[in-house]
From TrEMBL:
Keywords: Cell membrane, Membrane, Transmembrane, Transmembrane helix. Residues 7-59 form the Phage shock protein PspC N-terminal domain. This is PspC domain-containing protein. The keyword Acetylation does not apply. InterPro entries: Phageshock_PspC_N, PspC. It is a single-pass membrane protein. The chain crosses the membrane at residues 35-59. It comes from Blastomonas fulva. It comes from the Bacteria.
Length: 62
């Protein structure tokens, strides 16, 4: 198992690099993560915009 750590991917990111960072961490396509965030925001599942901002602010301090 490889040693993974989460980090923002600002070079491939669209806004803050959160979705790209999540995609890199799980080795998924960033577009899938972006679509999931948009759908969650549209359908009101939890608080995806707030979660996105919190992840972006916390991870940027690293």
């Amino acid at each position: 198992m490889k040693n993974r750590s989460f980090h923002l991917d600002k070079s491939n990111g669209k806004l803050m690099g959160v979705c790209s960072g999540i995609a890199n961490y799980f080795d998924w396509d960033a577009n899938i993560i972006r679509i999931a965030f948009v759908l969650a925001a549209l359908f009101g599942v939890g608080a995806p915009v707030l979660i996105y901002l919190v992840i972006g602010l916390i991870a940027s301090d690293r």
